# Entry
Amino acid sequence: MKKIPKISEAEWEVMKLLWKKSPATANDVVKTLSGKTHWKRETIRTLINRLVQKKAVGFKKKGRQYHYFPLVTEAECVRAETTSFLKRFGGGSIEPMLAAFVEEEKLSTEKIAKLRRILKKAADEHKKKRNKSR
Amino acid sequence: MKKIPKISEAEWEVMKLLWKKSPATANDVVKTLSGKTHWKRETIRTLINRLVQKKAVGFKKKGRQYHYFPLVTEAECVRAETTSFLKRFGGGSIEPMLAAFVEEEKLSTEKIAKLRRILKKAADEHKKKRNKSR
DNA sequence: TCCATACTATTACATCTGTAACATTTACAA
DNA sequence: TTGTAAATGTTACAGATGTAATAGTATGGA
# Structure
């Protein structure tokens, strides 16, 4: 499993952008984030630079500008964060977590369907294992 | 919704202990954590003290010793962390997350059943809403 | 009573984070 | 060509975190 650098709260905002659209110049990022946050352009540039140092973000020099792009995928990060979440709270956490998700109504009908499918598959596998060991 | 103080990675270890068994004296905590980590007793005491400052942990003086206990429940913390997780990755995150959970095999058969129930309920609610708006 | 022990309290210090100011270089317009 | 704006680079600084050392205090045994 690839090692994901530790990304801080503020830095996630930058990553989110780059996942959505990359490569992006520093200015692209500044422009977009200036809308959503109160960060000064220099602040945002610091975040980008730190991400580069951490090797979470790469860049290509294009003339005088830098074009940034993510070096880690969103899925990898979700995975890493999930693992750390699990370590913190143990398996017992997922239930209240899912409940929170549901309550926040972030779940579309299709997403719910997909999740149910994942769980159904897991349940089937459990059953299979039980049968085998019998 | 109650405001959960920001608890750091290392501090979670202390919280986990206290959730499992509290009240506990500083020494209880030190003893247990010394097994799992390489932290010196003073390090662990610092963590406890910080948690007290943050009001994540309370204590009662019992003679010369302090008995510590959590002031926030595990469920509250899971909830708060989930929300922050959601903010970071958006609703799209839950699918790979659940997949990770399943893969790590942290899910018992009963847990899966419970999760499926939660989702089924959510799905039914969606359906109801759709019908109403028709 | 007085010291060793066990606890608690104070202080330290390097990194990481959030938040930015100040400085330098480059490129284009006048 | 030279000043100015835009881009990049360097430095700053306070608060949080990881990790602990040292100092003070209370308490029970010699």
Summary: The helical segments of chain A are 9-20, 26-36, 41-53, 74-89, 94-103, 109-133.
